[in-house]
Specification:
Layout (H helix, E strand, L loop, with lengths): L5 E6 L2 E6 L10 H15 L6 E6 L10 H9 L2 H19 L5 E5 L2 E3 L1 H8 L2 E5 L3 E3 L13 H19 L3 E2 H6 L5 E3 L4 H12 L4 H14 L6 H15 L2 H11 L5 H8 L2
Parallel strand pairs: 2-3, 3-4, 4-6, 5-7, 6-9
Antiparallel strand pairs: 1-2, 7-8
Helix pairs in contact: 1-3, 4-5, 8-9
Amino acid sequence: MSYQFLQLEQHGLVAYVWLNRPELHNAFNTTVIEELHTCFKQLAIRDDIRIVVLAGRGKSFSAGADLNWMKQAGQASAEENEVDALKLAQMLEALATLKQPTIARVHGIAFGGGMGLASACDICIASTDAKFATSEVRLGLAPSTISPYVIRAIGARQASRYFLTAERITAHAAKQIGLAHEIADAEDLDKKVQEIIDALLLGGPHAQAASKQLIQMVSNQSMDNQLLRQTAHHIAQVRQGSEAKEGLTAFLSKQAPAWTSNSNNNN
């Protein structure tokens, strides 16, 4: 499928989704949101893709909302605004619930919805020149649709500061508060992303999908009997899978599991 504002590339088992509005710092509009949502839904059903990397062309990862799009929203009815906002929320959910591990490759600015995209990914690797912000309050808005992912990434206490002040967060500060997992100089950013890709390819794809489901199931749940039973049921199901049996057999025989051979063949 061809896109107006995205570029989709496949390198072996890795899909690279490039935001491609460099002249506007990859800002969102309705088309960008719809294209991202479509792309994520299509990637979710592809077994030939093990990892998804989200990145931005040009000087920035994403500046968030397009100003013209925001002006149109300000003139729209309450019903139209709700429909429009729901599309953004659904796109972010599609990214956050992809079965494949996801990596945000962040450089330049990641403001508003751009910070939401980075937070919705499983792993965020940022260039040392990157800057993040939940800038909505300075526009008289609130970071509503991105809030579940940003709060998941940095916690409610840090969100209390940055949602309210809209301060810019440097790459080093982003790592300190848990928003970025790793930072690297601009010239080493792709090398660092590749290191994470290599580590991910050592894991079983079904086990990784199950682990993502596990995180969603357990996060913010009380430690009670219901959660204990849910986690026990979860691992019992995973153990019965062919991938788990292959992994245990390979470990006991001191051999590499089959999926690592497949990963090496596609690199």
